[in-house]
Amino acid sequence: MDTDTERTRTTETTAADGTGSTTAERLDGAIDAHVHLMPPKLLRAIRGVLASEAGWSFSHPVERAGIERTLHEAGVTRYLALPYTHRPGMARELNEWVIEAARGSAMRTPFATVHADDEVRAVVREAFEAGARGLKFQCPVQKSGPDDSRLDPAFELAAEYDRPITFHAGTAPTFEASPHVGADAFESFLESYPDVRACAAHLGTYEVEAFFRFAHEYDNAFLDTTMALSARSPEYLGFDPATITDGELDDLSTSIMYGSDVPNLPYAYADERAGILARDLPTATLTDLFGRTAERFLGER
Ligand SMILES: [Zn+2]
Predict the structure, then answer these.
(1) Mean of the pLDDT values across residues 255-282?
(2) Measured in angstroms, how far is the CA atom of residue 21 from the centroid of ligand 1?
(3) pTM (2 decimals)?
(4) Scanning 21, 75, 128, 288, which has the fewest C-beta atoms within 10 Å of its C-beta?
(5) How far does CA 127 lie from the centroid of its chain?
Protein backbone atom coordinates (compact mmCIF):
# COMPACT_ATOMS: atom_id res chain seq x y z
CA MET A 1 0.00 0.00 0.00
CA ASP A 2 1.33 3.40 -0.87
CA THR A 3 0.62 5.65 2.06
CA ASP A 4 2.06 8.83 0.56
CA THR A 5 -1.25 10.37 -0.19
CA GLU A 6 -2.94 9.11 2.94
CA ARG A 7 -0.52 10.46 5.48
CA THR A 8 -1.66 13.97 6.14
CA ARG A 9 -0.34 16.64 8.39
CA THR A 10 -3.00 18.38 10.39
CA THR A 11 -2.98 20.83 13.22
CA GLU A 12 -4.03 19.33 16.51
CA THR A 13 -3.86 22.19 18.96
CA THR A 14 -2.66 25.73 19.13
CA ALA A 15 -1.70 26.87 22.59
CA ALA A 16 -0.35 30.12 23.92
CA ASP A 17 2.49 29.36 26.29
CA GLY A 18 3.62 32.84 27.16
CA THR A 19 6.49 32.75 24.68
CA GLY A 20 4.17 32.97 21.70
CA SER A 21 1.97 30.32 20.22
CA THR A 22 3.12 26.75 19.70
CA THR A 23 1.54 24.25 17.39
CA ALA A 24 1.57 20.59 18.23
CA GLU A 25 0.95 18.81 14.98
CA ARG A 26 -0.70 15.54 14.32
CA LEU A 27 0.56 13.15 11.68
CA ASP A 28 -2.15 10.76 10.63
CA GLY A 29 -0.84 7.34 9.72
CA ALA A 30 2.56 7.78 11.37
CA ILE A 31 4.68 4.91 12.64
CA ASP A 32 6.59 5.19 15.91
CA ALA A 33 9.56 2.85 15.57
CA HIS A 34 10.64 2.89 19.21
CA VAL A 35 7.99 2.10 21.82
CA HIS A 36 8.48 -0.07 24.90
CA LEU A 37 5.45 -2.26 25.34
CA MET A 38 6.26 -4.58 28.24
CA PRO A 39 4.51 -5.80 31.37
CA PRO A 40 3.83 -2.65 33.45
CA LYS A 41 5.75 -4.08 36.41
CA LEU A 42 8.89 -4.39 34.30
CA LEU A 43 8.44 -0.90 32.81
CA ARG A 44 8.16 0.54 36.30
CA ALA A 45 11.37 -1.25 37.32
CA ILE A 46 13.18 0.16 34.26
CA ARG A 47 11.90 3.61 35.16
CA GLY A 48 13.34 3.23 38.63
CA VAL A 49 16.78 2.59 37.14
CA LEU A 50 16.50 5.51 34.68
CA ALA A 51 15.34 7.77 37.48
CA SER A 52 18.29 6.93 39.67
CA GLU A 53 20.94 6.82 36.92
CA ALA A 54 19.81 9.65 34.65
CA GLY A 55 17.66 11.59 37.11
CA TRP A 56 14.62 11.45 34.82
CA SER A 57 10.99 11.35 35.87
CA PHE A 58 8.04 10.08 33.87
CA SER A 59 4.37 10.83 33.50
CA HIS A 60 3.28 8.66 30.55
CA PRO A 61 1.10 5.70 31.53
CA VAL A 62 2.80 2.28 31.33
CA GLU A 63 -0.31 0.24 30.55
CA ARG A 64 -1.00 -0.60 26.93
CA ALA A 65 -4.23 1.38 26.73
CA GLY A 66 -2.53 4.50 28.06
CA ILE A 67 0.49 4.12 25.79
CA GLU A 68 -1.78 3.74 22.78
CA ARG A 69 -3.92 6.71 23.78
CA THR A 70 -0.79 8.89 23.74
CA LEU A 71 0.16 7.55 20.31
CA HIS A 72 -3.35 7.73 18.92
CA GLU A 73 -3.75 11.38 19.91
CA ALA A 74 -0.62 12.15 17.89
CA GLY A 75 -1.94 10.35 14.82
CA VAL A 76 0.36 7.34 15.25
CA THR A 77 -1.41 4.30 13.84
CA ARG A 78 1.37 1.76 14.23
CA TYR A 79 4.37 1.17 16.45
CA LEU A 80 7.22 -1.24 16.98
CA ALA A 81 6.88 -2.83 20.43
CA LEU A 82 10.39 -3.34 21.75
CA PRO A 83 11.14 -5.52 24.80
CA TYR A 84 14.48 -6.08 26.51
CA THR A 85 15.69 -7.85 29.59
CA HIS A 86 18.73 -7.28 31.78
CA ARG A 87 18.71 -10.79 33.26
CA PRO A 88 19.09 -14.23 31.69
CA GLY A 89 16.08 -16.52 31.81
CA MET A 90 13.45 -13.82 31.28
CA ALA A 91 13.37 -13.33 27.51
CA ARG A 92 11.19 -16.28 26.60
CA GLU A 93 8.33 -15.21 28.83
CA LEU A 94 8.73 -11.55 27.95
CA ASN A 95 8.68 -12.28 24.21
CA GLU A 96 5.56 -14.39 24.60
CA TRP A 97 3.89 -11.53 26.46
CA VAL A 98 4.69 -8.99 23.75
CA ILE A 99 3.72 -11.28 20.87
CA GLU A 100 0.47 -12.17 22.61
CA ALA A 101 -0.27 -8.49 23.31
CA ALA A 102 0.17 -7.75 19.61
CA ARG A 103 -1.89 -10.62 18.28
CA GLY A 104 -4.59 -9.48 15.89
CA SER A 105 -3.58 -5.83 16.18
CA ALA A 106 -2.71 -3.69 13.18
CA MET A 107 -1.20 -1.09 15.50
CA ARG A 108 1.34 -3.25 17.34
CA THR A 109 4.35 -4.77 15.59
CA PRO A 110 6.02 -7.06 18.13
CA PHE A 111 9.78 -7.40 18.49
CA ALA A 112 11.60 -9.88 20.72
CA THR A 113 14.77 -9.92 22.73
CA VAL A 114 17.22 -12.43 24.15
CA HIS A 115 19.93 -12.30 26.77
CA ALA A 116 23.42 -13.40 25.71
CA ASP A 117 23.45 -15.98 28.51
CA ASP A 118 20.16 -17.55 27.40
CA GLU A 119 19.84 -20.44 24.97
CA VAL A 120 20.05 -17.79 22.30
CA ARG A 121 19.21 -19.83 19.22
CA ALA A 122 16.21 -21.56 20.80
CA VAL A 123 14.73 -18.40 22.32
CA VAL A 124 15.05 -16.41 19.09
CA ARG A 125 13.75 -19.15 16.82
CA GLU A 126 10.73 -19.60 19.05
CA ALA A 127 10.06 -15.87 19.02
CA PHE A 128 10.31 -15.62 15.23
CA GLU A 129 8.11 -18.67 14.76
CA ALA A 130 5.55 -17.13 17.14
CA GLY A 131 5.42 -13.89 15.15
CA ALA A 132 8.15 -11.53 16.39
CA ARG A 133 9.00 -9.18 13.53
CA GLY A 134 12.50 -8.26 14.73
CA LEU A 135 14.88 -8.14 17.68
CA LYS A 136 15.77 -5.45 20.17
CA PHE A 137 18.95 -5.22 22.22
CA GLN A 138 19.50 -2.59 24.89
CA CYS A 139 23.25 -3.23 24.69
CA PRO A 140 24.59 -1.46 27.79
CA VAL A 141 21.77 -2.73 30.00
CA GLN A 142 21.94 -6.28 28.59
CA LYS A 143 25.74 -6.14 28.71
CA SER A 144 26.16 -7.47 25.19
CA GLY A 145 26.49 -5.54 21.99
CA PRO A 146 26.36 -5.98 18.22
CA ASP A 147 29.84 -7.53 18.25
CA ASP A 148 29.14 -10.07 21.01
CA SER A 149 29.77 -13.55 19.55
CA ARG A 150 27.34 -15.07 22.08
CA LEU A 151 24.60 -13.36 20.04
CA ASP A 152 25.76 -14.76 16.69
CA PRO A 153 22.99 -17.39 16.68
CA ALA A 154 20.44 -14.58 17.04
CA PHE A 155 22.04 -12.60 14.23
CA GLU A 156 22.19 -15.67 11.98
CA LEU A 157 18.48 -16.31 12.58
CA ALA A 158 17.70 -12.65 11.84
CA ALA A 159 19.33 -13.19 8.45
CA GLU A 160 17.55 -16.50 7.89
CA TYR A 161 14.11 -15.11 8.79
CA ASP A 162 14.78 -11.65 7.28
CA ARG A 163 14.00 -9.84 10.55
CA PRO A 164 15.62 -6.50 11.46
CA ILE A 165 17.36 -5.60 14.71
CA THR A 166 17.25 -2.41 16.78
CA PHE A 167 20.28 -1.87 18.99
CA HIS A 168 20.82 0.72 21.66
CA ALA A 169 24.29 0.93 20.16
CA GLY A 170 25.33 4.43 21.18
CA THR A 171 26.94 5.82 24.30
CA ALA A 172 24.11 8.20 25.31
CA PRO A 173 22.84 9.04 27.82
CA THR A 174 25.06 7.49 30.51
CA PHE A 175 26.96 4.69 28.78
CA GLU A 176 30.23 6.19 27.60
CA ALA A 177 32.17 3.76 29.80
CA SER A 178 30.26 0.67 28.58
CA PRO A 179 32.29 -1.78 26.46
CA HIS A 180 29.04 -2.93 24.79
CA VAL A 181 28.28 0.20 22.77
CA GLY A 182 29.96 2.45 20.27
CA ALA A 183 30.40 3.00 16.56
CA ASP A 184 33.07 0.32 16.06
CA ALA A 185 30.92 -2.51 17.41
CA PHE A 186 27.97 -1.40 15.26
CA GLU A 187 30.11 -1.16 12.14
CA SER A 188 31.50 -4.63 12.72
CA PHE A 189 27.91 -5.90 12.77
CA LEU A 190 27.05 -4.08 9.53
CA GLU A 191 30.02 -5.74 7.87
CA SER A 192 29.48 -9.20 9.35
CA TYR A 193 25.75 -9.31 8.63
CA PRO A 194 25.15 -7.32 5.42
CA ASP A 195 21.76 -9.00 4.97
CA VAL A 196 20.42 -7.96 8.37
CA ARG A 197 18.90 -4.49 8.61
CA ALA A 198 20.23 -2.93 11.81
CA CYS A 199 19.01 0.23 13.49
CA ALA A 200 21.04 2.29 15.94
CA ALA A 201 18.59 3.95 18.31
CA HIS A 202 18.85 7.62 19.32
CA LEU A 203 20.73 8.45 16.08
CA GLY A 204 23.72 6.70 17.62
CA THR A 205 24.31 9.57 20.05
CA TYR A 206 26.96 10.56 21.08
CA GLU A 207 28.86 9.38 17.99
CA VAL A 208 26.31 10.79 15.57
CA GLU A 209 28.83 11.64 12.87
CA ALA A 210 30.08 8.05 12.66
CA PHE A 211 26.56 6.60 12.68
CA PHE A 212 25.44 9.01 9.93
CA ARG A 213 28.42 7.87 7.90
CA PHE A 214 27.27 4.25 8.33
CA ALA A 215 23.80 5.21 7.12
CA HIS A 216 25.47 6.62 4.01
CA GLU A 217 27.80 3.71 3.43
CA TYR A 218 25.83 0.61 4.39
CA ASP A 219 22.52 -0.43 2.86
CA ASN A 220 21.61 -2.31 6.03
CA ALA A 221 22.23 0.62 8.41
CA PHE A 222 19.27 2.48 9.91
CA LEU A 223 18.88 5.08 12.65
CA ASP A 224 15.98 6.09 14.82
CA THR A 225 15.45 9.63 16.01
CA THR A 226 14.38 8.71 19.56
CA MET A 227 15.03 11.60 21.96
CA ALA A 228 17.71 13.03 19.67
CA LEU A 229 15.85 15.59 17.53
CA SER A 230 13.73 17.27 20.18
CA ALA A 231 14.05 20.70 21.71
CA ARG A 232 14.36 18.73 24.95
CA SER A 233 17.37 16.69 23.70
CA PRO A 234 20.06 19.06 25.04
CA GLU A 235 18.51 18.91 28.49
CA TYR A 236 17.83 15.16 28.63
CA LEU A 237 20.27 13.53 26.24
CA GLY A 238 23.02 16.12 26.37
CA PHE A 239 22.83 16.35 22.60
CA ASP A 240 22.06 19.41 20.48
CA PRO A 241 19.88 18.49 17.48
CA ALA A 242 20.91 21.75 15.78
CA THR A 243 24.20 20.00 14.93
CA ILE A 244 22.20 17.98 12.40
CA THR A 245 21.13 19.92 9.34
CA ASP A 246 17.87 19.60 7.45
CA GLY A 247 19.96 18.60 4.44
CA GLU A 248 21.46 15.65 6.30
CA LEU A 249 18.00 14.40 7.33
CA ASP A 250 16.76 14.90 3.81
CA ASP A 251 19.75 12.99 2.35
CA LEU A 252 19.32 10.05 4.68
CA SER A 253 15.56 10.01 5.05
CA THR A 254 15.30 6.48 3.65
CA SER A 255 17.49 5.28 6.55
CA ILE A 256 16.10 7.34 9.43
CA MET A 257 12.85 6.62 11.25
CA TYR A 258 10.97 8.44 13.93
CA GLY A 259 10.86 6.94 17.42
CA SER A 260 9.89 8.17 20.86
CA ASP A 261 10.82 5.73 23.68
CA VAL A 262 7.25 6.02 24.98
CA PRO A 263 6.28 5.31 27.72
CA ASN A 264 9.78 5.92 29.12
CA LEU A 265 10.01 9.37 27.57
CA PRO A 266 10.67 11.95 30.29
CA TYR A 267 8.74 14.75 28.55
CA ALA A 268 5.57 15.35 26.54
CA TYR A 269 5.03 13.24 23.43
CA ALA A 270 4.31 16.34 21.35
CA ASP A 271 7.80 17.64 22.19
CA GLU A 272 9.36 14.54 20.68
CA ARG A 273 8.06 15.19 17.17
CA ALA A 274 7.75 18.98 17.29
CA GLY A 275 11.50 19.40 16.70
CA ILE A 276 11.26 17.44 13.47
CA LEU A 277 8.07 19.15 12.30
CA ALA A 278 9.54 22.58 13.00
CA ARG A 279 12.27 21.93 10.44
CA ASP A 280 11.87 22.94 6.85
CA LEU A 281 11.71 19.41 5.47
CA PRO A 282 10.02 18.37 2.23
CA THR A 283 6.84 16.33 2.59
CA ALA A 284 8.55 13.30 1.05
CA THR A 285 11.21 13.41 3.75
CA LEU A 286 8.59 13.59 6.50
CA THR A 287 6.77 10.70 4.87
CA ASP A 288 10.00 8.67 5.09
CA LEU A 289 10.78 9.64 8.68
CA PHE A 290 7.25 9.03 9.92
CA GLY A 291 6.51 5.78 8.15
CA ARG A 292 8.09 4.65 4.93
CA THR A 293 11.53 4.05 6.40
CA ALA A 294 10.07 1.93 9.19
CA GLU A 295 8.28 -0.11 6.54
CA ARG A 296 11.60 -0.53 4.70
CA PHE A 297 13.28 -1.52 7.95
CA LEU A 298 10.61 -4.17 8.49
CA GLY A 299 11.13 -5.48 4.96
CA GLU A 300 7.68 -4.43 3.79
CA ARG A 301 8.88 -2.27 0.90
ZN1 LIG B 1 14.27 2.76 24.27
Answers:
(1) 95
(2) 30
(3) 0.92
(4) 21
(5) 19
